[in-house]
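Deviation from plan, reported transparently: zinc ion complex.
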Amino acid sequence: MLILGIESSCDETAAAVVRDGREIVSSVIASQIEMHKPWGGVVPELASREHLEKIEPIVAAAIAQAGISFSDIDAIAVTQGPGLIGSLLVGVCYAKSLAYSLGIPIVGVNHIEGHVYSVAFENPPVEYPALGLIVSGGHTNIFHIPEEGQYKVVSRTRDDAAGEAFDKVAKMLGLGYPGGPIIEKLALLGDTSGVKFPKAKISDGRPDLSFSGLKTAVARYIRENGIAPMTNGDEPSQEIKDLAASFQAAVVHALVGTLEKLADELQPKTLIVAGGVACNLALISAAEDAGKRLGLPVYFPSKHLSTDNAAMIAAAGYRQLVQGDNAKLDMTADVTMRLQNVDNEEAELRQLHVKYRL
Ligand code: KG4
Ligand code: ZN
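Because the crystal trials were delayed, the predicted structure below was used instead.
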């Protein structure tokens, strides 16, 4: 089955052709990073206008690179949510009209589930139950996945997503946008124990995450030590490198520590670490170490599939399509779409409550 995937939830316009949910035939991504850079983050109005300009040529490029024509596509999978409303609508409306004109099925895909499926390529098939840490600029969650397509949130961030924390800390230091890759590079040259940060404590004791305290601690450190934000062309000081290394280590420690604790509890067969932050090598190596300690395989997306792309959306859509799903043409963007369809959340949370002595 040849599926055309379409992704436009944030600042990447992407299209891909994927065969049977596991083989990328073509994948094209137009990133808007350069356009949003001067603003230090994504500007929603600019993003949707840019998607509108790019969607048609990007889909055409994905079809051309696959060496096929539109009539060869069997179905369309499009990101339905969560994301920016204007951005999502561009992809959803385009995908619906294309599906209608070609007379083929269409399914709406949850963007986060897309990230889960980014490991479907270049890894052995996932064995269930699995535990998935999805960590990006907009989301930071750990999902228990008892079987394919079933999700239960077992840990979530109470405030900022981890990627957002990377972006904000980079902004404070005048390092540019997006912050993750820049901080990772500086951290390689810094000392992870250079700055001591307090560990986030969740007052109700759930295995949740929080990054806003860490962000505030970085801001305080910058202020108290009189660190000036860098301007273009500055050589970063050792102090900034140490700060980057210590901040990154604190984020990785919180993410992997929580993943490991939950894996111990829930006994999955596979660990999945995906999302934009999953290309961070410090995170990869800490998660691999945790996998070794637990005796579990850890699957990551390859670098080009860790940030937003349409191949992962097609892979997630494949599961729905083989079940015979076909969205109606009144399907629309769902900004707060959730990925949780296991109905015993309460019971499960109570159990975790007991486990963590609340
Ligand atoms: O998944 P993604 O492309 O978009 C969302 O769905 O949010 O993730 C983008 C996020 C940004 O916050 C960016 O700073 C972060 O992923 N990121 C990284 C790295 N590369 C991208 N964070 C840490 N280390 C990296 N190497
Ligand atoms: Zn994403």
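The radius of gyration is 21 Å. We consider this an acceptable substitute for the interim report.
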